[in-house]
């Protein structure tokens, strides 16, 4: 699947974490020319007032001033190290600690302060498309991981069925396939569920029961 970069940002919404000091320069008027609305988020007692759960990846872009120490905290996706929306860092002091803080927020592009209009489009292009590219890679990795896990579950289920029924490999596979079709599940998912059910303790209530009952449950498993 080829990646197609976004070139038109009309309809986007820029959420700016920055104090108005004049160093924002041409950011807001340039974004307006590109069809991107601009909203400065309130900062109360050093913390940005924002509902991260309400952000929309298909239109929102966060601009974060790297000179505001700890004003914003974002929980990144553990697999791809991605924020929920593209993050563009606003850089004044190019200290390694400031740049590291922006990188830890998942910034995929940077803008120097004071912001010059000619740099905004390039920063948007890089920030948004790098975010989208990394998200696409994350989805591919997740698909491969799901496939790997599903194949492993399928092999375990086939071996288990062969031991239980005496069928050969092809027979056990066909039997599981028919069962998955009746359950309207993919074969891999059906096998995962089957193994999960078999691995579950026989008594979910916590009662120990009598020894004969426990032995009978173990034989059934």
User: Helicity level, as a percent range?
Assistant: 40-55%
Largest sheet: 5 strands, parallel
What separation lies between the terminal Cα atoms? 43 Å
Strand fraction equals: 5-15%
Structural class: alpha/beta
Number of E-type strands: 7
Helix count equals 6
- Report mean pLDDT, rounded to a whole number: 85
State the fourth-level CATH superfamily of the largest domain: Response regulator
* Largest sheet: spatial strand order: 2-1-5-6-7
CATH A-level architecture of the largest domain:
3-Layer(aba) Sandwich
Note down, in words, how this protein is organized.
- With 221 residues, this protein is α/β, with parallel strands linked by helices.
- It folds into 2 domains: 13-140, Response regulator (Rossmann fold), CATH 3.40.50; 144-200, Arc Repressor Mutant, subunit A, CATH 1.10.10.
- 46% of the residues lie in helices and 14% in strands.
- It is built from 6 helices and 7 strands; from the N terminus they run βαβββββαβαααα.
- It has helices at residues 27-33, 96-104, 117-165, 169-182, 187-199, 211-220; strands at residues 13-17, 37-40, 43-44, 47-48, 60-65, 87-91, 107-112.
- The strands form 2 sheets. Strands 2-1-5-6-7 form a 5-stranded parallel β-sheet, sandwiched between helices.
- Strand 1, helix 1 and strand 2 (37-40) form a beta-alpha-beta unit.
- Helix 1 crosses helix 3, helix 3 packs across helix 4 (169-182) and helix 3 crosses helix 5 (187-199).
- The longest helix has 49 residues, at 117-165.
- The relative contact order is 0.10.
- Residues 208-221 have low confidence and may be disordered.
């Amino acid at each position: 699947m080829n990646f197609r970069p976004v070139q038109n940002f009309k309809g986007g919404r820029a959420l700016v974490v920055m104090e108005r000091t004049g160093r924002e320069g041409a950011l807001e008027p340039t974004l307006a020319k590109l069809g991107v609305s601009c909203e400065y988020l309130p900062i109360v007692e050093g913390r940005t007032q924002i509902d991260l759960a309400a952000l929309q990846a298909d239109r929102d872009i966060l601009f974060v001033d790297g000179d505001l120490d700890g004003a914003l905290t974002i929980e990144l996706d553990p697999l791809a190290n991605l924020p929920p929306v593209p993050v563009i860092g606003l850089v004044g002091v190019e200290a390694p600690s400031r740049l590291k803080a922006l990188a830890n927020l998942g910034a995929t592009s940077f803008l120097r302060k004071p912001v010059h209009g000619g740099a905004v489009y390039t920063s948007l292009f890089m920030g948004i498309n790098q975010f989208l590219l990394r998200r696409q890679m994350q989805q591919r990795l997740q698909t491969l991981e799901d496939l790997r896990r599903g194949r492993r579950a399928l092999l375990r289920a086939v071996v288990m069925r062969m031991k239980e029924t005496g069928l050969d490999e092809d027979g056990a596979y066909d039997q599981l396939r028919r069962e998955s079709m009746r359950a309207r599940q993919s074969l891999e998912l059906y096998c995962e569920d089957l193994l999960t059910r078999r691995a579950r303790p026989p008594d979910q209530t916590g009662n120990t029961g009598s020894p004969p009952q426990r032995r009978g449950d173990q034989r059934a498993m």
